[in-house]
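Q: Structure tokens for this one, please.
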Amino acid sequence: MARQNLLHAWTWIRKIEWGRKFEAIAIEKIMQESKATIKSCGFFIDPCNERYGASPDGLGPAAILLEVKTRAENSDGPLIALKSYPQYFVQCQLQMNCTNAMFVILHTKNINKNIMQRSSKS
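A: Here is the predicted structure, written as tokens:
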């Protein structure tokens, strides 16, 4: 059991390292492509419910948030239809609610972008 837990922890650590590596590359590419400055940010508490919070990957101009998603290690091709994943939709809506932003750009390392607008129900 302990060996299985260690393997699980090691797998998650590798995934986090992989994500952080390519998150920085993706942010740099979108800044170059858009000529916009993306600022790193911290944790925002939901103004309506302090039990919730969010930490977007970056803040852009005009209250636009950036959320970077990376592909699994050793996989090919861009992520497709990110906004069709319910967990990403919920994550982005919470980020917009916590920061009062109106749009999130879901972005991948391969410059695959999806723009998600804030839901009026969030």
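A few notes: The chain has one domain: 2-117. The chain has two helices and six strands.
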